[in-house]
histidine kinase (marine sediment metagenome), 241 residues
Amino acid sequence: AMLDRLEGLMGRLRHAGDAIAHDLRSPLTRLHARLEAALLDVEAGAAQPAEALTQALEDTDGVLSTFNAVLAISRLEAAGQIGNPTAFDVGRLAEGVAELYQPLCEDKGLDFSAELGRGLYIKGDERFVSQALANLLDNAVKYTAEGGAVMLRARRRSSGDVEISVTDTGPGVPEVDRARVVERFVRLENSRTKPGSGLGLSLVQAVAEAHAGRLYLDEGPGAMAGSGPGLRAALVFPAGG
């Protein structure tokens, strides 16, 4: 049995390595092209070396961010579960994250509201769950137009499971695309004009699965004031602690 587990672990690690190599090829290719173009611009006198280097550094930051996200996803998928889980209150965690995003929403002209229960304990890795929630809020803020709303909620379901959800009044995700949008680097047509790697929901999905939970994507509050129908993204975890 031990040998079988080791073979399974090695297989998952090999798969993770292959996935990382595949996922990083595109951003590295884009970075190479940007550097090549910057060099040509400097040689032609169309740009100053400092400007070209600044742009290259920004592109490198983007690649590093992509690499870190891919690495986190691959580690979660390879392990299959959280090592050394600890009990923590999802409501308290969400309150801390909400304090970071309320001013971001205000700056963009969005109405932000939070309804957070307490004593919502689960077992797992608090940092990963915090990152997953941040990714959901990032998406909500990014795709919701000025005058819209973002709602954060943490509650206990009647089943006893713990649910944390982010609802927005943005364009939403068509039902036919909801399974596909959690795959790595998948970006729908209405998101092409926004910066991003297409890894945000992939990490959320990986975090949910590593905690024996689920990610649900549903329609938001519906069309309103020329926007919508919105998106409701809910992370559901088994209670623990």
